[in-house]
What we know:
This protein has 150 residues and is α/β, with parallel strands linked by helices. Helices cover 32% and strands 22% of the residues. The protein is built from five helices and seven strands, in the order E-E-E-H-H-E-H-E-H-E-E-H. The chain has helices at residues 43-54, 56-61, 74-83, 97-102, 136-149, and strands at residues 13-16, 21-23, 32-36, 65-70, 89-92, 116-120, 126-131. A seven-stranded mixed β-sheet has the order 2-1-5-4-3-6-7. Strand 1 and strand 2 (21-23) form a beta hairpin.
Amino acid sequence: GQVNKGQVPPNFTLKDQDGKAVSLAKYKGKPVVVYFYPADESPSCTKQACAFRDSYEKFKKAGAEVIGISGDDSSSHKSFAKKYRLPFTLLSDEGNKVRKEWGIPSDLFGALPGRQTYVLDKQGVVQLIYNNQFQPEKHIDETLKLLQSL
């Protein structure tokens, strides 16, 4: 299936950049921005991660958590987070299981895992889905606007 607006997406438990298990359910009660991206260190992914980093204080002010998810393993995430001083959680979706469960379309003729952002409200319901290959900065503003209205 595909996760749509107004739905509660399937829960998952994945390892973060420190190898600790993190489950989506643990964030209930606060809004969460879950963004799926193709790979650590690719130029647009780095741009996107840094844009989230630069706005991170605003997300925190809005009471929200930010979670980035890709198929890279924990050690790749760890060096990516360290290199760019990323203050948020990066989860390792090895084998792209969660990506498949959420029904995220791949992009560029299926060559790359898609880049998609979900904003969940305090109840864990999807309020915004943003499919974004090309303007990572722009979607951060829209995401923040929505969070501030929740």
